[in-house]
Design a protein that fits this description.
heterodimer; A: two-stranded antiparallel sheet; 65% helix; B: 110 residues; mainly alpha
């Protein structure tokens, strides 16, 4: 069970933030824009990760990962981290932006009356 | 102890992201209250998640102490992780804003 730990942490992050999709224009409903924002940054951070692992700056505890590795001996969880965490950030930002926009429209709307 | 492996790159990543905004993209993201509120939420969630990943009793990510400043706060989180997280999420939001403004057909200021 231990080896699912990192994966479960990532799944929990996504599960908690996914409902924020309901606010505003959403993230999952704009897959191209989302991919365009997430993938280039994920590529840079994945490269950074590969260098850090190769240089023994940090390592992943084999007890808590599935053992499925990508080139550079990077656990698949780490690639998913660079997709999941940005999605959580985007979902939060998109929702906050939508809520602030709604509040502002309500305020200017009532000011006009 | 040297901090060269993680502390230095983490600081450079933050500078690079700021340079991307102020030198290249000019999205105005840093002037948007939605950005700062979101970042506060992100950090609030980073603490339990990252705290779990880095807890010294059963770490998922193990750092070579020679490459970090040694300051771990809160819990056992290396402070460098907050710079890393800031750079990661901010870079994604910058690209997101740029695309949104492009689609709307104007550059600076929402």
């Amino acid at each position: 069970m231990d080896r699912w730990q990192y994966l479960i942490v990532l799944a929990a992050c996504l599960a908690i933030t996914a409902p924020l999709e309901l606010f505003g224009a959403g993230v999952f409903r704009q897959p191209w824009r989302t991919a365009g924002a997430v993938l280039p940054v994920a590529a840079v951070f994945f490269a950074w990760d590969a260098v850090a692992v190769a240089a023994h700056v940090w390592a992943y505890n084999t007890r808590f990962v599935t053992g499925i590795n990508l080139p550079g001996r990077i656990p698949i969880e780490e690639l998913l981290f660079f997709i999941v965490i940005p999605l959580c950030g985007l979902l939060s930002y998109s929702a906050v932006d939508a809520i602030l926009g709604r509040l502002q429209r309500a305020r200017t709307g009532s000011a006009r009356k | 102890m040297t901090g060269l492996g993680y502390t230095l790159p983490a600081v450079v990543a933050v500078i690079a992201v700021c340079a991307l905004e102020f030198g290249v993209l000019h999205t105005g993201l840093f002037r948007r209250p939605a950005y700062w509120i979101s970042m506060a939420i992100v950090v609030a969630f980073q603490i339990p998640v990252d705290g779990w990943l880095t807890k010294l009793s059963a770490p998922i990510v193990i750092y070579d102490e020679r490459h970090i400043s040694g300051i771990r706060f809160p819990f056992d989180i290396p402070v460098e992780d907050f710079l890393f997280g800031f750079a990661l999420v901010t870079a994604v939001l910058l690209l997101w804003e740029r695309q949104r403004q492009r689609d709307r057909g104007h550059g600076d200021n929402p």
